[in-house]
Structure formats: structure tokens, C-alpha cells
Amino acid sequence: MSRVGKAPIPVPKGVEISISGSHVTVKGPKGTLERDIPGEITVREDEGQLVVERPNDERQNRALHGLVRSLVNNMVIGVSEGYRKELEIIGVGYRATPKGDTALELALGFSHPVSVQAPAGITFEVATPTQIAVIGTDKETVGQVAANIRAIRKPEPYKGKGVRYRGEHVVRKAGKAGK
User: Fold this and answer.
1) 91 φ/ψ sector (left φ>0, alpha ψ -120 to 50, else beta)
2) For the whole model, what pTM was predicted?
3) Which strand (E) or helix (H) includes residue 143?
4) Tell me, what's the pLDDT at 109?
5) Cβ burial, residue 165 (10 Å; 0-12/13-18/19+)
């Protein structure tokens, strides 16, 4: 039995779950998320908790059991608390400028500023010109948008300039040895 898959998912107050066949919809104070459950995995509500079950021990069902439990749990957390990924910009003249809640303009050392549009359900928060927060209800989308912003100018190993996750450690290399 999957250790992750057999753990029940607690449903907090204010979150509504509707299950129709293999389609799960989760509504909460932060929004609504929907997902189709793959394979023969089933999700049922049991005394204020969600239970993810598999019909047998076939390889495919064992592989999907813990995955589906994690995906549904991420949906419940997303609509109740939301997700946040924080990025830091390091470099002289590197900065982020908000253009409303759903767009950013980044100056990252290129000859032109780079514009980033947020997909539906994602907002940007710029605390200082060098700190960006990506906020949303869907964990996958928040992580992907943050990774796309980081990919525009990854931290380089010599001076450490670029966009990195808050708290990310960049391994530095020694530069040229002087005479």
C-alpha cells in the first residue's frame, strides 16, 4: 500500500468538494479547481475527509495512488490557503516593475525590458524592485510561472547575477587567477 496514498486528506471549513465519477471539483474561499482523476483510482468523501483508493495492486494503480492523493491535497490547500513562490533578482541595474497585478516588466541586463504576463489565476506581488512573489491557487501553475521567470536570466556561477528562488544557494566558481 502506498504510504502517501493511504493518508486521508483533511477538508478544512469553507471548502466544498464535489465528486462526479472521475472528476473532482474543489471550491474554497480562494477559488475553484477541477481535475480529472486518471486510471481506476477513486476519491470518496468520508466524515469530513477525502480518501483516495485503488481497486487492486496492479503496477499502474500503485504508481497513480500516491500521485492522485498529492494532487487532490494540493487542490484543497490551494483553494483554502493558496500558494506563493518568491524570487530574488541580483545584479546591478536588474529590477522588476509591476504593470498591474498580472504583468511584470523585468530589466535583466538585456538591451530591452522583458515583459511577463501572468496566466489566469496568477498574480504578481513586487515588494521591492528586487523581490517578486508569484501567488495563486494552483501549485503547478505557480511553480511553472516562477520557473519561467527564473529561466529568463538564470543565476550565473561567477558573480551570482540573475533571478533565483528566495533562499536558493548558487554554487560559485573561481574566476580567472590573476598574476
Assistant:
1) left
2) 0.90
3) helix 139-152
4) 93
5) middle
